[in-house]
């Protein structure tokens, strides 16, 4: 059953990239799935390179699991195509797609030992016994589970069980591994630790991973690229840095950067910058150049961590610090802007240099950190 992608059967584990770590691993074109009136996934398209760690990020119900299940073959698309390693697998049964899975529930066989659980995909594929023993041993070692092979799943902690599930997906070296909220059931500390472990294994083995989470931080820590999903649509598919610094929609700016939004109108362009007159304070803020006509109504978006406090009267607006909270290395402050009745402007600055409640401050931002989104005149 070579079609299962038992690539490079004698591959030595440490530091060796999998045989497929070049070129395009997976592509999805105009994938769509509806349930009655609900459009669960709306024309999703993406190309994923071999060796890439891609995350579907979105709140509950945004279509992440449905997209992943269509790729896996457990859910039939209404339309669209799925290609794995250049082969159209849209109508193939799950086990013929050569993909590995790890789900939130560990789904280990309770009556089998750890080693038997991990061996299962190889047993199923008729791999010789010696080969199975060797590869199970190697895989358990990668996941730090050497010595646990003889235990039953119930004799392991949640984190260890999830590592076993990961081993079972890794053991036959599928070209692509799919993971749906695999750390969702674990506590924060263990989750942080396993994020790093999964990322390390992925990089060392050159694995292609599609990962699902609703946790922004988890997505940012682990991914080469993130598809931000919303109501069945891929809102933006980009690197964490691009999503953070060049969000293409207000939704992305809010979801990843928790941006401040300030309504205003484009006043003029000066060389490489665009100047926006803010509604609330009447101040003028300088943004990166945007190709929008003067007079266009916009939402100005700036992340709290990219605002700076300066002397009152300087910057694009002045206000009074209404609250300031120390959160470890940062101070989070809420600023009541002069002449405005909008929400408090949220500011995050390194602790020690933080403003204090009651203080009068000016607010400034590097134009590179100021994003603009045109808004509908009537709605704006
Ligand atoms: P996510 O994984 O992002 O939370 P899902 O892909 O599970 O989102 O669901 C997307 C949408 O499709 C939701 O509105 C959900 O209620 C709906 N949905 C998912 N599976 C089914 C199903 N089997 N039957 C009916 N509606 C479904
Ligand atoms: Mg889900």
UniProtKB/TrEMBL annotation:
GO molecular function annotation: ABC-type quaternary ammonium compound transporting activity; ATP binding; ATP hydrolysis activity
Domain ABC transporter: 26-256
Domain of life where this protein originates: Bacteria
Keyword terms, alphabetized: ATP-binding, Nucleotide-binding, Transport
Nucleotide-binding is among the record's keywords: yes
EC number: 7.6.2.9
InterPro entries: AAA+_ATPase, ABC_SmlMolc_Importer, ABC_transporter-like_ATP-bd, ABC_transporter-like_CS, Mo/tungstate-bd_C_term_dom, NA-bd_OB-fold, P-loop_NTPase, Transp-assoc_OB_typ2
GO cellular component, one term: ATP-binding cassette (ABC) transporter complex
Protein name listed in UniProt: ABC-type quaternary amine transporter
Naturally occurring in which organism (per UniProt): Streptomyces afghaniensis 772
Lineage: Bacteria, Bacillati, Actinomycetota, Actinomycetes, Kitasatosporales
């Amino acid at each position: 059953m070579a079609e299962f992608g038992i690539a490079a059967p004698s591959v030595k584990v440490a530091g060796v990239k999998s045989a497929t770590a070049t070129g395009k691993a997976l592509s999805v074109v105009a994938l769509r799935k509806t349930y009655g009136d609900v459009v669960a996934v709306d024309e999703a398209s993406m190309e994923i390179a071999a060796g890439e760690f891609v995350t579907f990020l979105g709140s509950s119900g945004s279509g992440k699991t449905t997209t992943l299940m269509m790729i896996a073959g457990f859910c039939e698309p209404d339309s669209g195509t799925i290609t794995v390693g250049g082969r159209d697998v849209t109508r193939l049964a799950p086990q013929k797609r050569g993909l590995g899975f790890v789900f939130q529930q560990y789904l280990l066989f309770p009556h089998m030992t750890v080693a038997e659980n991990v061996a299962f995909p190889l047993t199923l594929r008729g791999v010789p016994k010696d080969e199975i023993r060797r590869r199970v041993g190697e895989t358990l070692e990668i996941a730090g589970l050497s010595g646990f092979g003889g235990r039953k799943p119930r004799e392991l902690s949640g984190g260890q069980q999830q590592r076993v599930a990961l081993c079972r997906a890794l053991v036959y070296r599928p070209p692509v591994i799919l993971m749906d909220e695999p750390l969702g059931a674990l506590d924060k500390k263990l989750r942080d630790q396993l994020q790093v472990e999964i990322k390390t294994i992925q990089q060392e083995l050159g694995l292609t991973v599609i990962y699902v989470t609703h946790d922004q931080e988890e997505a940012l820590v682990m991914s080469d690229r993130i598809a931000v999903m919303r109501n069945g649509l891929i809102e933006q598919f980009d690197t964490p840095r691009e999503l953070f610094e060049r969000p293409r929609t207000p939704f992305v700016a809010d979801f990843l950067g928790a941006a401040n939004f300030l309504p205003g109108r484009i006043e003029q362009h000066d060389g490489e910058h665009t100047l926006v007159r803010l509604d609330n304070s009447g101040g003028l803020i300088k943004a990166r150049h945007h190709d929008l006509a003067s007079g266009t109504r916009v939402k100005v978006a700036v992340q709290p961590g990219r605002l700076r406090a300066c002397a009152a009267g300087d910057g694009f607006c002045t206000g009074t610090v209404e609250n300031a909270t120390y959160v470890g290395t940062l101070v989070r402050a809420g600023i009541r802007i002069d002449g405005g009745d909008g929400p408090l402007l949220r500011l995050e600055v390194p602790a020690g240099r933080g403003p204090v409640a009651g203080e009068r401050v000016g607010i400034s931002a590097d134009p590179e950190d100021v994003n603009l989104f045109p808004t509908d005149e009537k709605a704006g």
